[in-house]
Amino acid sequence: MRLALIGKVFMYLLLALVLLIAGYLILMSGIFHTPQSVHEFSSDNPDYQRVLVVGGTKGTGLEVVRQLHEKGERVTAMVRKTSNTDALDEMGIDKVVADAMRPEELAQAITAGRFDALVSTLGTSARDLPQRQNFIQSLFKGQTVMDPNKRPDFIGNKNVFDAARAAGIERVVFVTVIGPGKSWEGLPLPARRGHQEVIPLKEQAEDYLMELDMDYTIIRPGGLSNGSMTKTAKLTTDPESFSYMGRKDLAELVVNSLDDDSTIKQVYTAYDPNRLYLWNLFLD
Predict the structure, then answer these.
(1) Distance between CA atoms of 90 and 11, rounded to whole angstroms?
(2) Which helix (H) or strand (E) holds 138?
(3) Strand partners, 52
(4) In the chain, where do the E strands start and end?
(5) 3-state DSSP helix/strand/coil % of the chain, to nearest 5
(6) How far apart (Å, rounded) are the C-alpha atoms in residues 17 and 28?
(7) pLDDT tens digits, the chain, 284 residues: what are they?
(8) Radius of gyration of the chain (CA)
(9) What contacts 38, CB < 8 A, 6 or more positions away?
(10) Which residue in 210, 284, 254 sits closest to 60, CA to CA?
(11) CA 96 to CA 105: how far, in whole Å?
(12) Closest CA to 198 of 132, 253, 145
């Protein structure tokens, strides 16, 4: 009798766990809103031959470098002294050495007449974050996990934009994240707490860029994977849209935006109707 009761309790707990996980996955999906319009890239594009990519040593930035290189652009990656440049070296990519948190280094690396356009995917990397014990300590003490002045998400990008403007670069494509401005409504509820530190910094960087007299395009992706391309990713000005995104697809949107004048002065959400669910990040 007791074993049967224990068995029933276990089954109820298991069912509750399954329902909890299912509910979480549904809430973390992009099924609640479909964008009413998407951007169609122009086929009559200008040709930017000299492109500087900031954040190009890994992730989306590295894929942007790769696609620009394959397209025949004269692409240069900005790296730090401590950056792993193996992937860039394999492709024979030119590099400039500068730390985005050091304006004096940027002034020497980004000089007048050297580049025609800038792509920034700059953000806080995993190695920049505090150790786990500091994070746990911050939960109990209510402290900020990381000093925002030590994160490149705003300060670093601001420095880069200032240096680019001083060098006469007009065209900028800036990759941020879903959450700033009205796109906060598109961010799934369970994800909001985990992004509450970085989103204000990304929003500051976006606002700063929009105030400058530059030909910017801002692209906000959701969660990113390293999987294969779907070739179905689009840009939308609908801020309530949300999906996950392959880095290769996102990089293609960045490269296409760079050469499309109709994307200038626009803020987009990157949306892929074939990656609406969290598990898309792990099943590619």
Answers:
(1) 54
(2) helix 132-141
(3) 76, 118
(4) 50-54, 74-79, 94-97, 117-120, 171-175, 215-220, 224-225, 234-236, 245-246, 266-271
(5) 45, 15, 40
(6) 16
(7) 677 777 777 788 888 888 888 888 888 899 999 998 999 998 666 777 899 999 999 999 999 999 999 999 999 999 999 999 999 999 999 999 999 999 999 999 999 999 999 999 998 764 555 444 454 444 444 444 567 778 999 999 999 999 999 999 999 999 999 999 999 999 998 888 888 889 999 999 999 999 998 999 999 999 999 989 999 999 999 999 999 999 999 999 999 999 899 999 999 999 999 999 998 888 76
(8) 21
(9) 234, 235, 236, 271
(10) 254
(11) 10
(12) 145
| Residues 6+ away with beta carbon under 8 Å from 48 | 73, 116, 117, 171, 258, 259
Would you state the structure tokens that stand for residue 100, as one six-digit string? 């985005």
Q: Which residues contact 182 (CB under 8 A, 6 or more apart)?
A: 239, 240
- What single letter denotes the amino acid at residue 103? P
Token pair belonging to 78: 């900005």
Closest CA to 270 of 255, 253, 282: 253
Measured CA to CA, the distance from residue 220 to residue 102 in angstroms comes to: 26
The position carrying tokens 């670093």 is: 156
What is the rounded distance in angstroms from the CA atom of residue 206 to the CA atom of residue 181? 9
Are 42 and 107 contacting, i.e. CB atoms less than 8 angstroms apart?
Answer: no
Residues 123, 248: Cα–Cα separation, whole Å: 18
